[in-house]
Design brief:
This protein has 266 residues and is an all-alpha fold. It has nine helices and no strands. The longest helix is centred in the first third of the chain and has 34 residues, at 3-36.
Length: 266
């Protein structure tokens, strides 16, 4: 068993899987609001933070994928399995690692408005199927589609992000309906990007990442104009009052109440 070759292949698989996850996350957080909500108060992503996050995801993918390749090579060598069997389990292993890391970080932060059926209907079946793929070649073939990082990332991210933005009280019917167009797009991308050889998958995956990275910074958005006529100005006899409210301001840090710096001059 050439563990170095399997580790290199695992690192590439991990890199591609985490780039897929970053692409879907960036689309949902930075591009979709501009396309779906014209009056959305959009704050453009910080260039440095976006580049840092992309680099972190790439490093995590390379590291976890490489370690997964080494682990599969060791297990195959000890059990006497063929190299093709270890390589066949590489993609579900890499996707399962991504799935577990993301689920562990996302689920604790989900609000109570997202119902329990999200976990039971979508997350658990995908996670259990990926886990079963590691121990059974039959399950690995049956769940090959779920092992695709496009599908797994869509299941993990779409419902929490979309529901938190537009559906504060999602229903069971709204879940599959909302997920269907994203699953269709994920199926299309998984069909267009070949699984092997990996060098053929690198260029289209990098193109998707570059396209979304450009969209995060280059898309422009104009606020929706008010449809109702402007209110008539108040009569001149009405007092001209401006109410200013300040949040998280300490009274002892205002010069109004004796602070040495002139923080409230007026």
């Amino acid at each position: 068993m050439d563990w170095l070759k399997l580790a290199r292949r695992g690192a590439i698989e991990g890199l591609l899987a985490w780039m897929v996850y970053w692409s879907i996350e960036s689309f949902l957080l930075h591009v979709l609001p501009r396309l779906s909500e014209p009056a959305y108060l959009y704050m453009p992503p910080h260039a440095g933070f976006t580049a840092l996050l992309l680099g972190i995801y790439a490093a995590v993918g390379l590291l976890t994928g490489g370690l997964a390749g080494v682990a599969l090579a060791v297990v195959a060598a000890r059990s006497g399995a063929e190299a093709e069997s270890a390589a066949f389990r590489l993609r579900p292993t890499v996707t399962l690692i991504l799935y577990l890391l993301v689920t562990g970080s996302v689920l604790p932060r989900l609000p109570g408005a997202l119902p329990a059926w999200y976990l039971e209907l979508f997350c658990l079946p995908v996670g259990l199927s990926l886990l079963a793929s590691l121990f059974s070649s039959v399950w690995a073939r049956r769940c090959r589609l779920l092992a695709n990082p496009w599908i797994a990332s869509v299941v993990l991210l779409v419902l929490p992000v979309v529901f938190l933005r537009s559906h504060p009280s999602p229903t069971l019917l709204a879940g599959p309906v909302t997920l269907l167009p994203f699953l269709a797009a994920a199926l299309l991308l998984s069909a267009l990007i070949p699984e092997a050889p990996l060098r053929r998958a690198a260029l289209p995956s990098a193109s998707v990442v570059a396209l979304l990275l450009a969209a995060c910074f280059l898309l422009h958005q104009e606020p929706r104009l008010a449809s109702q006529p402007r209110a008539t100005p108040p009569p001149h006899t009405t007092p001209n009052i401006i109410l200013i409210t300040l949040d998280t301001v300490r009274a002892d840090h205002t010069s109004l109440y004796g602070y040495e710096r002139d923080t409230t001059p007026n």
